[in-house]
Design a protein that fits this description.
Hypothetical Protein Ychn, Chain: A, alpha/beta, five-stranded parallel sheet
């Protein structure tokens, strides 16, 4: 299952809630303000690193660019809109709002 997170972890607990339901191998995709979670060196970096041990983590490049985020937690992959569509086609989606 693909888990998408669109809310900033600084304003919402959707990322924390999502991690409780992740199964090994489930990809996590951060979009919109959710991309703040993957910025390198913030208070969520350790949790991102923990998730990466069992799950792939992605961030939508246009949303990172729109928010001026250039440095990501190590291991986080970026996808463009085409990559986003590919993930959605491959997996059932659970959106965390």
């Amino acid at each position: 299952m693909l888990h998408t997170i669109n809310k900033s972890p600084f304003e919402n607990n959707t990322f924390e809630t999502c991690t409780r339901f992740l199964l090994p191998g489930d990809p996590v995709l951060f979009i919109e303000d959710g991309v703040y979670a993957v910025q390198s060196g913030n208070k969520f970096t350790h949790e991102i690193e923990r998730v990466l041990k069992t799950n792939p983590v992605f961030a939508l490049r246009p949303d990172l660019d729109a928010r001026g985020i250039g440095t990501l937690a190590e291991g986080v992959e970026t996808v463009d809109y085409e990559g986003f569509v590919g993930l959605v086609e491959e997996h059932q989606v659970n959106s965390w709002f």
